[in-house]
Design a protein that fits this description.
Helix 11 packs across helix 12 (307-320) and helix 13 packs antiparallel against helix 14. The chain has one domain: Aldolase class I (TIM Barrel), CATH 3.20.20.70. The chain has helices spanning 2-5, 44-54, 68-77, 84-95, 98-103, 111-114, 124-130, 161-171, 191-210, 229-249, 276-290, 307-320, 333-343, 350-367, and strands spanning 31-33, 40-43, 60-64, 104-109, 134-138, 143-145, 153-155, 175-182, 214-221, 258-259, 297-300, 326-331. It is of the alpha/beta class and 382 residues long. Strand 9 (214-221), helix 10 and strand 10 form a beta-alpha-beta unit.
Length: 382
């Protein structure tokens, strides 16, 4: 990990091969002054190095940032009591897997986890770093009902965020995540919900970059409901356009962030479920119309898709090719459902859980390169 944050000599700033997305004149680091002393608070060059590493070829992000309430639901499904120790044991199993060093670029952690130590006393953050991965942290504090907008939510957590980010940086976090939730239903989403959530995402992103942390910007349009794929396209387009407008207003450097969007997909209750090729084509079309080329990468959320659907859609998009940004995964359930079931809270099942995790990680690694096929699902992880 240390190599990602080491200062670089000015002679290296002309190495266009390091940052192929940029034009040579844009390779100079940009500094933002945080006061009269001229203190450096953001180095875009280093932020971009971390962002590029997060979407390195064949690698993606493990979203292991489930809140205590959410992971309790996951554990209830496999009949495992959710305690601080059981949550630690489960995540330690994932972090000690060989798959982490082969297929994962970074791990999004929950506040509890970033401070935890493994059974042998090693900090879990150190296990992630030892695997050659980047530790990250979920920093939003969940959602609250949005006043005057029935059925809609706003993500909260901006208060005291600057101080929390400084603490997380000291603990090893080099990127963060904030999730906005936009639902599709009768007369929603409102422009109010889109605006306030986009504004909060941009404020969060600006604070992250000031703390030398790469922000993952996650404006999720939920796939719940009976809407068709075209309704998802229209809503996601409105959300992404507003989000990037707010990012510009807040002077967020696009080269130092990662976008984590939903795919363009039919609602779960829709009578017509779109085929893989249609999801891929429409998602790519939408990204091209909304996402600036300066963004280093797009790491999709799985959003409740089945494990194989999430992999197939990512693969189909990467087979289209010719894109200005890397397309990869930032999956939670789509990487963890299988290992959770295989592990089931038993120490003797750790190897089986790690094998299940390795298989799903490998499948998505291949999909991020457009090299996956359904037949591989029957094979064990290499």
């Amino acid at each position: 990990m240390g190599h990602l944050s080491e200062p670089l000599g000015s002679h290296m700033l002309r190495e266009t091969t390091i940052l192929p997305v940029f034009q040579p004149r844009e390779l100079q680091p940009k500094w933002v002054s945080s006061g009269d002393q001229g203190e450096i608070s953001m180095n875009l060059f280093d932020l971009n190095k971390v962002a590029q590493a997060m979407v390195a070829t064949g690698r993606g992000l493990l979203a292991a940032d489930e809140s205590t309430g959410t992971i309790k639901k996951r554990f209830d499904a496999i009949k495992v009591e959710s305690t601080e120790d059981s949550r630690r044991d489960y995540r330690e199993m994932l972090f000690r897997s060989d798959a982490l060093s082969k297929y994962i670029s970074g791990v999004i952690l929950y506040d509890e986890t970033i401070w935890q130590k493994a059974k042998d006393g090693t900090a879990l953050v150190k296990l992630i770093e030892q695997a050659g991965c980047i530790p990250g942290i979920k920093v939003d504090e969940g959602t609250q009902p949005l006043p005057n907008c029935p059925g809609e939510l706003v993500t909260v957590g901006l208060d005291r965020l600057a101080g929390r980010l400084a603490d997380y940086y000291k603990q090893g976090a080099r990127f963060a995540k904030w999730r906005a939730v936009i639902d599709i239903g009768k007369d929603i989403p409102s422009m109010t919900a889109i605006h306030v959530n986009a504004h909060a995402l941009a404020r969060y992103a600006a604070l992250c970059q000031a703390a030398q942390i790469v922000p993952i910007v996650e404006p999720e349009v939920l796939m719940d409901g009976d809407h068709d794929i075209d309704r998802c396209y229209d809503v996601t387009q409105r959300v992404l356009n507003k989000t990037f407008q707010e990012l510009r207003v807040q002077r967020v450097a696009l080269e130092g962030m990662i976008l984590k969007p939903n795919m363009v997909i039919s609602g779960k209750k829709s009578a017509r479920q779109s085929p893989v090729a249609e999801v891929a084509e429409k998602t790519i079309r939408l990204l091209k119309s909304c996402v600036p080329a300066a963004v280093p990468g797009v790491a999709f959320l799985s959003g409740g898709q089945s494990d194989e659907d999430a992999t197939a859609h990512l693969d189909a998009m990467n087979r289209i090719g010719g894109l200005p940004w890397k397309l990869t995964f930032s999956y939670g359930r789509a990487l963890q459902a299988a290992p959770q079931k295989a592990w089931s809270g038993k120490a003797e099942n750790v190897a089986a859980g790690q094998q299940a995790f390795a298989h799903r990680a490998r499948m998505n690694s291949l999909a991020s390169k457009g090299e996956w096929n359904a037949g591989l699902e029957q094979m064990r992880a290499a």
